[in-house]
Amino acid sequence: MSFTNAPVTRLLVLGIVSGSIAASLLDIKHYFYIIVDTHIWRYRQFWRLLAYQLCYTNSTEVLFAAMSLYNLRIVERMWGPRKYASFILVSFLLTALIPPVIMIVLRPLTAGIFNYMPAGPTPIVFAVLAQYHAVVPHMYKYRIATSPAPPTNTPFSGITLSDKSYKYAIALHLALLQWPGSVVGAVVGWAVGQSWREGLVPLRIVRWRLPSWMVGAKPMRRSAEFESMRRRLEGEGAATTQSVASGVEAGADGQAERRRTMGQQIVDQFREAL
Fold this sequence. Notes:
The chain is mainly alpha-helical. 65% of the residues lie in helices and 5% in strands. It contains eleven helices and four strands; from the N terminus they run H-E-H-H-H-H-H-E-H-E-E-H-H-H-H.
């Protein structure tokens, strides 16, 4: 019941969990992370760019990623499964290329520190988190004091949080688990989400949608939509006309009844006089 109206989120969570379990059981975890100097420069394994976001390699990341996607399912409910799935696919393709390229550029500048790109869809999680931050308002705020209760005339000293703060905290913990590579992926994912929203991504890509059958929706042709709308309007118009006609007929019958009643009274009075 928690995934009601969120089939894409349910599929993502199940895919992350089952994919990570399968990678552990089959002992193929080493195919899903990227070591820049070995996999990219030496062996030219560019297929890893499309593979590194398919699953995580440890249970902690699986837990926090699944919790984050579950908390962000409201974005799919607001957008609809088709738009949400299209956004996920576009984000996957963009984040499959940009973070490894940044790691390739930063590696020689940082003495090899930025050499490891961890496995997992952390960039996608942060792309969705950027949409959540923009479209979902907070319900309430609360404060946590960082010092003992001050006198009434002293300004409050503490941290102000909202009901959304713990969701950001879970995602932030996910981003810090395998830094610096996970941090790069998280920053790029957030930037992709913001670029999508601010119109920096080409409009054709933003408006592109997956076929309806891929998200379980039955496609309807535009002519069929117009025909259905026309029939509905005709039915409403016919019902309105019928109700108006019935009201006019009822009014005429009432007037005729009143006329017959007055005539009958006059005839009765003449009969009594005679």
